[in-house]
Design a protein that fits this description.
alpha/beta, 19% strand
């Protein structure tokens, strides 16, 4: 999970789903990277920083490519997303994605390129992220995310296949000409 660690990105859900999926079995590793130590990043690091399979990176000294080279799947359990640059960048590098089935990524992610995180029946106020803004965001399902994490960890060839399909899609459909 990369990008600004914050409420709207659903960042706090990622380690919770990871622990639900794998405990501390060593079957998978989670990287949470943020270009700066946001309050949520700091809190997550305090809560999960001693977990043997979770790594926190609080400054990307290079481009996001640093993160993409270290990982196999990009996780985006966003509550709302206006565009979704990081999932597209990850797809372009050949990474499969695990993405919330809402907002803009629905236009460029499919089951051929990764897995959907289904939405739960739980909601959170938008004002948690945007003060003085009414309304609610539906939260991604931790169970759905954990289940997809397990599927991906159990089938590396499927992860690679979906990542290659994602890269091909981006290279053939999301060009300056298109």
């Amino acid at each position: 999970h990369g990008g600004m660690t914050q409420f709207r990105k659903g960042s706090w859900l990622v380690p919770e789903a990871f622990v639900k999926a794998f405990g501390n079995t060593g079957m998978a590793k989670l990287i949470i990277a943020s270009p700066q130590a946001t309050p949520m990043f700091t809190q997550l690091k305090l809560e999960y920083g001693k977990h043997p399979d979770i790594e926190f990176i609080d400054a990307l000294e290079e481009s996001a490519m640093f993160l993409y080279k270290k990982a196999h799947i990009y996780i985006s359990p966003h509550l709302a997303e206006g565009f979704g640059l990081m999932p597209l960048e990850a797809m372009a590098t050949g990474m499969a994605c695990l993405v919330s089935r809402i907002s803009a990524p629905r236009e460029f992610v499919s089951k051929d390129y990764g897995w959907w995180i289904e939405m739960s029946e739980d909601y959170a106020p938008v004002s948690q992220c945007l003060p003085d803004t009414s309304g609610f965001w539906r939260l991604p399902s931790i169970d759905s995310m954990a289940e997809s994490m397990q599927k991906a960890a159990g089938d590396p060839k499927e992860v690679e296949s979906r990542g290659m399909a994602a890269s091909e899609y981006v290279q053939n459909n999301l060009t300056w000409e298109d």
